[in-house]
Amino acid sequence: MSLLEGKKAIIIGDRDGVPGPAIEECVKAAGADVIFSSTECFV
Amino acid sequence: MNSVITASSYVLVHTPDMVLHNGTTITTEKIVNPESEYLKELPKHIRSYEDALAYAPNQTYIGNMTPDELAAMPQPWYETKVEAKREGKFGEILPQDEFYMLMQICDVFDLLVLEKGFAAATKEKFVKNPAVLPAMVERIKEGVDIAEIEALVNDEHAEGLYMDGKLVGAVKRAHDVDTNLTAHVMHENLVSKASSVLALIHLIKNCDIDASEIEYVIDCSEEACGDMNQRGGGNFAKAAAEIAGLSGASGEDVRGFCAAPTHAMITAAALVKAGVYKHVAVTAGGCTAKLGMNSKDHVKKGLPALEDCLGGFSILVSENDGVNPEINLDICGRHTVGTGSSPQAVINSLVAAPLDKVGMKIVDIDKFSPEMQNPDITKPAGAGDVPLANYKMIGALAVTRHEIERTDLAAFPEKHGLVGWAPTQGHIPSGVPYIGFCRQDILDGKIKNAMIVGKGSLFLGRMTNLFDGVSFVIQGNSGASAASAMDEAEVKNMIAKAMKQFALSLMEGEEEQ
Amino acid sequence: MDLENQKRVKELAEANGPENIVVILGASESEAAGLSAETVTAGDPTFAGPLAGVSLGLRVYHVCEPEIKAEIPADLYDEQIGMMEMVLDVDSIASEMKSVRDQYCKY
Known about the structure:
The complex is a heterotrimer of chains A (43), B (513) and C (107). Chain A has 43 residues and is of the alpha+beta class. Helices cover 23% and strands 35% of the residues of chain A. In chain A, strands 1-2 form a two-stranded parallel sheet. In chain A, strand 1, helix 1 and strand 2 (33-40) form a beta-alpha-beta unit. Chain A is elongated, with a radius of gyration of 11 Å. Chain B has a single domain (4-476), classed as Peroxisomal Thiolase, Chain A, domain 1, CATH 3.40.47. Chain B has helices spanning 16-22, 24-32, 37-41, 49-53, 56-61, 67-72, 96-106, 116-126, 134-138, 146-155, 183-206, 236-243, 260-273, 295-300, 343-357, 375-378, 386-400, 412-416, 435-443, 478-512, and strands spanning 4-14, 93-94, 112-114, 159-163, 166-171, 216-219, 250-253, 279-284, 309-318, 326-334, 367-369, 449-456, 468-475. The longest helix of chain B has 35 residues, at 478-512. The longest helix of chain C is centred in the last third of the chain and has 15 residues, at 90-104. A two-stranded parallel sheet of chain C has the order 1-2. In chain C, strand 1, helix 2 (30-41) and strand 2 form a beta-alpha-beta unit. Chain C has one domain (3-104). The two termini of chain C are 21 Å apart. The chains are: A alpha+beta (43), B alpha/beta (513), C mainly alpha (107). Chain A binds chain C through residues 2-5, 7-14, 16-20, 22-23, 25-27, 29-32, 35-36, 38-40, 42, and chain C through 1-2, 5, 8-9, 12, 16, 20-29, 32, 36, 40, 58-59, 61, 63-64, 67-68, 71-73, 76-77, 80-81, 84, 88. Strand 1 (8-14) of chain A pairs parallel with strand 1 (21-25) of chain C.
């Protein structure tokens, strides 16, 4: 079963890892519905 | 002609009580979880002034240790104490009590009051500081009774100033209803202004020109000042310039989250190169909100609360003197609206794209100074070693561009990078901490150039999801190398002349014989 | 995890049904990834945010885990995330994520 296709995706990106919008593009292409995307910053 | 970097200053202010009263991690916890174990434990993790002085990254920040010397020390650095010096080549580490006095000097609206005894005792220490100007000393006021301060804090929403937990002063609200002039905002802004002033007076001490020759000041901190009708009206730059005695200066505030210092440097370099001003100072004070930002993790792991210092810096950008390192504006990287947010797109736009424009490779840059956060602070908090991650990304980009082999990737950070030594004060660690050392390294011939990279998390302001960043290159003075090339030509010319004369004299000798 | 983000995760899980949700992380270190994963499964381990004591048990992955990478078009993944794969310690992140899922994931 697909982990992403048809799922509602919540994205918690990281400024110093992978930022939210980059993840968003990827999971959208995999068929997920992005319902929230954010990027955290520790510095 | 390119503008040059003539001087710099770097200062820290040890503010242990502000960690407990003004850091947002702490103030948030007091609201959501007032009885938490963390709040009870944190005071035990606060460092003394002596310990903050004996901390190697702090000594590096003010110029007593080089980044190479710091890199040679085993990590984590808080485990090894170094010589505790207050004064450094670039600036100083000011203690909290003297900083409260500096804040009072910077307050021009009678908002800050200090307790009588505290003010008198601190003044005695404060006036001995060689960087302090006579006009600043004249601004020191008599203190008030503690009862007055207690009433302000208890009944008038004033922000308390504490020494070892004891109330010694307060910042009053500047308006009864305006949310932009609350005691909290006034405190935050006075801190920013005062630490910027501290950096500016050290810059004046470190440079060869008279303070009145600085024509323009650009503040690049992360605070905003204004009233309810213009929340970010400004102008921190001019306000700080006034106290620092820069009588010939106007100024402006440049903002852009952590990328602001690099934006400000490019602006300063362009203004000077265009001939608008001869000397421009870029300056920033520190940020109370970020004090103790990662202290939950530090407490949990038994570390000292390392985010106990405000940071500040000033850099003087001047017209080309034929000696000092130049800012090359032909190599300016920028993250554009269309760049996208993937890490490779970001790093490509900031590092590779501007180099491509002038036909240079990544490996042609000797040192990169991206985000120089101290890993002692960030690693225990799960944010990793930020400068190292940046170097790995730049190195990985060099691999994808076939400039280096994948097997060389591991050596890239050491060869083209630095360890991070700056406190996590947002704009303070971003690109600029190396400029002081960079100027010296280029003058000493240790490196030929360096790229300063500033990045900013614009999305924190909830106005855009975009990221931001800009970069520029500092390089040896072309005038200096042209001068030495001329010298070489001149020497050759002189030798040729001498040989010609020698040959002539030989010929004459032969003719005589 | 940021308190505001915790609030949004809680609201969205309630509104959409926790069984329909997948949380994708981009953390730079395994420990930070583990803490965020724990927050959306077992509850906020720092007891600071809206998810303190709330066990949502959501599906949660780091974007660099092989299961997620396999579902993303290869060229797009390469363009958006490829370089970070060289920078991050993917193995350690993946094992941390798996360990949290094995303990607390309900779906």
